[in-house]
Design brief:
about 120 residues, alpha+beta, Glutaredoxin, two-stranded parallel sheet, globular
Length: about 120
């Protein structure tokens, strides 16, 4: 985070979770970035990244104590595909990586390199 901030950049997460759940995550994990609320996954939908949780997975989630209707504050049972994006100062997406497997994320060093490559 210090390297990223030193480059004049900032990290922002976008989540369908209600603010109370995001604040809990920020506190528990000692996160040093903001999590913006995307009600109904509307932003994810605008970018083609929203998907509806199928009934069999919904049932599994519920048996594990995961209730997206509660945490997201709507009954859509939708989630965003995990993605990482680098935007320039004009808001143009200069890097995008989306992977349905949430465990596969860009390495922090790769993200820093992407930011370093942004035009002035």
């Amino acid at each position: 985070m210090d390297d990223l901030n030193g480059l004049g950049a900032m990290l922002i997460a976008v989540s369908p979770e209600l603010g109370e759940y995001s604040r809990t995550l920020i506190d528990q994990k000692h996160l040093r970035f903001d999590i913006l609320h995307d009600p109904g996954n509307d932003v994810a939908h605008a970018y083609g990244l929203r998907w509806v949780v199928p009934d069999d997975l919904k049932s599994l989630y519920k048996t594990l104590g995961v209730d997206l209707a509660e945490t997201n504050g709507d009954t859509s049972w939708t989630l965003p595909l995990p993605g990482s994006f680098i935007l320039d100062r004009a808001g143009v997406i200069r890097y995008a990586r989306v992977d349905p497997d949430y465990t596969r994320r860009p390495e922090p060093q790769d993200t820093l390199e992407g930011v370093r490559k942004l035009p002035g």
